[in-house]
Amino acid sequence: MRLLTVTAMRRVDAAAIDGGVSGLTLMEAAGAAVATRARARLPAGGRVVVLCGPGNNGGDGFVAARLLAEAGYAVDLLCLGAVSALTGDAALAAEAWTGPVRAAEGGALPSCDLVIDALFGAGLSRDLDGAARALVETVNRAGVPVLAVDVPSGVDGDTGAVRGAAIRAVETVTFVTFKPGHLLQPGRSLCGQLSLADIGTGPAALEAGLAACAPLDRNGPALWGRDFPHLTGASHKYTRGHALVLSGPATKTGAARLAARGALRVGAGLVTVASPVAALAENAAHLTAIMLRPCESADDLDDLLTDERLNVILAGPGLGTGEPTRERVAVAAAAGRGLVLDADALTSFAGKAPLLAAHLADGDARAVLTPHAGEFARLFDGTDAVAEGADKVARARAAAALTGAVVVFKGADTVIAAPDGRAAINDHGSPYLGTAGSGDVLGGLIAGLLAQGMEPFAAAAAGVWLHGDAGLRHGPGLIAEDIPELMPAVLRDLVALTGG
């Protein structure tokens, strides 16, 4: 699903109106969608409080209130600001409401089964304060389920950031397509269940919106499924790629083995762990289908890479930080193979992002970087090209442009960005993935997909989604070792879905 910024969504509305659909018709459809979702949450004859704001979001609320009242529900409508100050379609929607309107002031809410939040939409341009903030805080204290219109009031539709204060909703109804703020944290958590409604803008208007912003997608099989590796009768281990995972010293070998297991389970035909001699016995004690080669230095790695069947290198998990790791990365990058850099490989270039970019450019490596927030900050903060105050998508895009690599900016709202400006936000995951070694397995999944021929952006996006799906399947008690073992079920269902 393509995501639209607030500005692009305004372009959709304008294009629909230019095409002959009235603004009031769109508002009626939006309000009807909200009323439908409200009815699904209300008991028969239940009581709902509708909070209407001063703009078109408030107009949607007036429509929903009218329809709910006509359906037999008890409706209390509270308006922030004077109804007489409403303009355009919102004023027309308010005129059609025949019930009483109360001022949305401080104090307790009326007793109710549901609150509809139609105060402020995704285009909120300043932090909430005064009466608006007090009302939001009152709603949150009340503990009543909230159905939000467009976004929970106080959430920035482009970034997911909280503008001063924000409502916590159990469900959010939005229109046409999702916005970045629906998927980026903390907005994602504040939205609750996401519901999407078609309000009749039409495909031409949507195309106008898509043309008004850089490509940004909700991550899922629709984005990369056609590129996912599918086996044929002619497939064998040598057609499925050979991933090389660099291991650290004997006391830190587990991370590399987790990554190697992920690469093998996702379908790489062959996987080898390149290990220091002192760690060979430790690695050999735990590896069976995964092969093992000695590798002490950058020179040894250079020798290994004379075997061109080694088409992907994963460096970082448990590798150690400092100059020896930078040297290995330089050799791996110069080889021009697929390359996944994580953990220590990224930390070793702290404050040296331009140097890393130069290495990647030297061999025209097909590279994917997988930093979590701390690694991202160490690598990129202070770099002029990556603004520290920008939103997560903008920062990931800037980092990708700087390094010439796909950047997987990990977290509960992982962003995948390519140097050409493509980006995706992943919301298919589980908080149970926040456990030691989970990221190492993710690096291995991406390396395994690169080894099978996926291009870096698709491999990164697919790896993130598969990783998230495993987390969703397992749930409580998940540890990193579980993730590769969940891959057969994850892949079986994916193959059925994509027809491979």
UniProtKB/TrEMBL annotation:
Residues that coordinate or bind K(+): N57, D117, S153
GO biological process per UniProt: metabolite repair; nicotinamide nucleotide metabolic process
Location of the YjeF C-terminal domain: 220-494
Record GO terms (molecular function): ADP-dependent NAD(P)H-hydrate dehydratase activity; ATP binding; kinase activity; metal ion binding; NAD(P)HX epimerase activity
E.C. designation(s): 4.2.1.136, 5.1.99.6
Pfam families, sorted: Carb_kinase, YjeF_N
Record text on cofactor binding: Binds 1 potassium ion per subunit.
Binding site residues for (6S)-NADPHX: 56-60, 121-127, 150, 255, 318, 372, 440
Keyword terms, alphabetized: ATP-binding, Isomerase, Kinase, Lyase, Metal-binding, Multifunctional enzyme, NAD, NADP, Nucleotide-binding, Potassium, Transferase
Annotated catalysed reactions: (6S)-NADHX + ADP = AMP + phosphate + NADH + H(+); (6S)-NADPHX + ADP = AMP + phosphate + NADPH + H(+); (6R)-NADHX = (6S)-NADHX; (6R)-NADPHX = (6S)-NADPHX
Keyword Isomerase recorded: yes
Domain named YjeF N-terminal: residues: 9-207
Necessary cofactors: Mg(2+); K(+)
Record carries keyword rRNA-binding: no
Positions that bind AMP: K410, G411, A412, D413, T414, G439
Role description: Catalyzes the dehydration of the S-form of NAD(P)HX at the expense of ADP, which is converted to AMP. Together with NAD(P)HX epimerase, which catalyzes the epimerization of the S- and R-forms, the enzyme allows the repair of both epimers of NAD(P)HX, a damaged form of NAD(P)H that is a result of enzymatic or heat-dependent hydration. Catalyzes the epimerization of the S- and R-forms of NAD(P)HX, a damaged form of NAD(P)H that is a result of enzymatic or heat-dependent hydration. This is a prerequisite for the S-specific NAD(P)H-hydrate dehydratase to allow the repair of both epimers of NAD(P)HX.
HAMAP family listed in its UniProt record: NADHX_dehydratase, NADHX_epimerase
Family named by the database record: In the N-terminal section; belongs to the NnrE/AIBP family.
Subunit and partners: Homotetramer.
Name of the protein in its database record: Bifunctional NAD(P)H-hydrate repair enzyme
Naturally occurring in which organism (per UniProt): Methylobacterium radiotolerans (strain ATCC 27329 / DSM 1819 / JCM 2831 / NBRC 15690 / NCIMB 10815 / 0-1)
